[in-house]
Amino acid sequence: MAKIKIGIIGLGTVGSGVYKSLQNFDNVEIVKIAVRNINKPRSVKLPREMLTDNPFDVVNNPEIDVIVELMGGVEPAWSYIETALKNGKHIVTANKELLAKKGEELFNLSEEHNCVVLYEAAIAGGIPIIMPIKTILAGNRINKIQAILNGTTNYILTKMDTDGASYEDVLKEAQTLGYAETDPTGDVEGFDAAYKITTLATIAFNSRIKFENVYREGITKLRAEDMKAANELGYKIKLIASATIDENNNADVRVHPMLVPQKTLLAHTDYVTNAVEMSGHPIGKIVLSGPGAGEFPTASSVIGDILAIAREFGTTDYLLPMMRCHHHSIAKPVNIHDTYNKYYLSIKAPNAIGVIAKIGTICANKNVSLSSILQKGVNENNTAVITVITEKCLERSIKEGVNELTNELPDCEVLSLIRVAE
């Protein structure tokens, strides 16, 4: 078995886990590691001469066979990977943003230079998902994905649900515990999950998804009252990354909060755990669940990719053909306004005769059928919160109905509008 030589860019949490774990394998040798600050105290002990603060020292090193990129972001990571590929080096990356935004260019360049790009860690941390899709599930036509792909938001929503706490309070707690960044925008506004579902759907559907066509909505507007109402209605609220594709290659790919039925596995995927549910033929429906982030879970996926390359290195002129990008068609995006969904609405309205009737009339005029409508009690200021669940209807219609409701009943306020999973 040929011994491969590794260069790593980035020695943060995941990079440290990779370095520690690779010490157990005799067929892999780490040659050079690029870091921002050579003098920074680290959780790993390693020879100082192994470090450099110039990543080009790594990607241009003729001794190195595989570049492991763990720094994240598009630039300068893309410049380093581009140089590495042109130098004939294979790539292992955990960079979900780079894959989502530069995937087509990345894979075309890798084929041009006969290099393989592996990225198991970029989608669901420690959950094996890309390798199974490319190998064991290769004979299936997957047409639907529903997934929880961000541990930070799932932790926040779980705590809001179990503790009855506000989003703001739970976010502060998550930041204190290190589950959320000081600037949590990438997680709580759905960017992280959107990057991941872009690549996951591209691979699963065998048709490229453009990141700019992915609808995205975060969790910042969710209220503790919504969590309570969802429980009473038999649901849990989760940030769901979903994707569906039809026989005409129309792809509906999005990230947003959803009321998920309590009988499903996704509803009981809590705290920082991730889960991916896929449906297709002939497999039916399967769910993969596990740790979506962290030092060793993510390092596990990175190391698996490195060892996959190591097993074939030196034995063939074309490594890992099944793991390469073979799709060249581009899926046709479906606009969110043209989708059909069920909806949960929480409406604050005056406790007056005819208000509920007016809500029903407006919905009927927009071809929105109501599954249930409920008012529980009256507040001290003579207002009431009305909870509405619709049947499946056109997104454009429900949005028009909400606008008409607030225009015709200016004392009404739509507190929440959340889609409902089936």
Beta strand %: 25-35%
The coarse silhouette is elongated
Low-pLDDT stretches:
none
How far apart, in Å, are the first and last alpha carbons? 50 Å
Radius of gyration: 24 Å
Structural class: alpha/beta
CATH domain fold name of the largest domain:
Dihydrodipicolinate Reductase, domain 2
What does it look like?
- It is a single chain.
- With 422 residues, this protein is α/β, with parallel strands linked by helices.
- It folds into three domains: 4-125 and 295-323, NAD(P)-binding Rossmann-like Domain (Rossmann fold), CATH 3.40.50.720; 130-292, Dihydrodipicolinate Reductase, domain 2; 340-420, ACT domain (Alpha-Beta Plaits), CATH 3.30.70.
- It has 14 helices and 18 strands.
- Strands 7, 8, 9, 10, 11, 12, 13, 14, 15, 16, 17 and 18 form a twelve-stranded mixed beta sheet that branches. It has a six-stranded parallel beta sheet with strand order 3-2-1-4-5-6, sandwiched between helices.
- Helix 3 packs parallel to helix 4, helix 4 packs parallel to helix 10 and helix 7 (151-163) crosses helix 8.
- It is elongated and about 80 Å long.
